[in-house]
Design a protein that fits this description.
The complex is a heterodimer of chains A (179) and B (105). Chain A has 179 residues and is an all-alpha fold. Helix content of chain A is 74%, strand content 0%. Chain A has one domain: Up-down Bundle (Butyryl-CoA Dehydrogenase, subunit A, domain 3), CATH 1.20.140.160. Chain B has a domain of 53 residues. The chains are: A mainly alpha (179), B mainly alpha (105). The interface between A and B is large, with 47 and 29 residues.
Chain lengths: 179, 105
């Protein structure tokens, strides 16, 4: 399968700004959504995504086409940046950190603050980080199981196990919303 | 039950609103790209600059080095270290040692 991003990555590696901008336009919204849901904070998500793109710009010149799918690699880098930030949180529980007021204004603030979205986000933030990542990749980012397993660096069986536990935990917490 | 959980999760997560990407973030990311591209254009000199004085333009470490060189040469040329006392040291290699050896018991 031909990776649709290869040409853009190679050109960005040669310093082509238009290619870099096209890559960013194509992937930034997905990475931002993943980071925001993983970290529960808009400002932290922005920093994590910026770090991920910085890593992309640093590595673009050495990118080897055909070795890995670019989008898979970028998802993995973004997730790792999120894990780094989650582990750097000293004492606050993830649940509390997710509820820290975010000073960054956003167009979707009204919706974000809706009780339903808030409840879902809180339930997600209570999941262990690997389960949360698996749930978000497969159910929110619509990655297939094989790709999600590759992003997480685990087997498909391990991914399914994470998904199973994550779904049950979410349903136990949010069962009243749909049952 | 597994499939049911799967559908349920899919359905619930649909209610999450989309996340906006602030234009300022796009600008920051592109600024990082520009800085990286400039660094690559400058080549090994920029690498050296970053090792000595990270994140500054090249003229600054070069200027600091030139300034230190000028000050050093000026001091060495115009400020003689002669304080009026000539210090000489002579060692007579063929003279016997001037210290006494204690008797061994």
């Amino acid at each position: 399968m031909i990776d649709p991003d290869t040409d853009l990555v190679v050109r960005a590696g040669r310093g082509d700004r238009a290619a870099a901008q096209a890559l960013m336009t194509r992937h930034l919204p997905k990475m931002m959504t993943l980071a925001r849901r993983m970290l529960g904070s808009q400002s932290e998500a922005e920093d994590a995504v910026q770090d991920a793109f910085l890593k992309l710009w640093t590595h673009a010149a050495r990118w080897q086409p055909g070795k890995a799918k670019f989008e898979t690699w970028l998802y993995r880098v973004t997730l790792n940046k999120c894990y780094d930030r989650l582990r750097r949180r000293p004492s606050a529980k993830l649940e509390e950190a997710a509820e820290v007021a975010d000073p960054a204004p956003a167009a979707d603030t009204v919706l974000e603050n809706s009780a339903l979205a808030g409840e879902i986000e809180a339930a997600l933030s209570e999941l262990p980080e690997r389960q949360r990542a698996a749930i978000l990749l497969c159910h929110h980012q619509e990655r297939g199981n094989i790709e999600a397993a590759e992003i997480l660096g685990i087997s498909v069986e391990a991914l399914e196990s994470l998904l199973g536990r994550g779904r049950r935990a979410l349903r136990a917490r949010l069962g009243h919303l749909r049952d | 039950m597994g499939n049911e959980d799967e559908e349920w999760t899919q359905d619930v997560l649909k209610d999450l609103p989309s996340v906006s990407v602030p234009p300022a973030l796009e600008r920051r990311i592109l600024a990082d790209f520009d800085a990286q591209a400039a660094r690559r254009r400058d080549g090994w000199l920029a690498g050296l600059r970053d090792a000595v004085w990270p994140g500054v333009p090249l003229w600054r470490p070069a200027g600091a080095l030139a300034f230190a060189l000028v000050v050093g040469v000026t001091v060495g040329t115009y400020l003689p270290l002669d304080d009026g006392v000539e210090q000489t040291a002579s060692v007579a290699l063929d003279a016997p040692p001037s210290f006494e050896l204690g008797e061994s018991s």
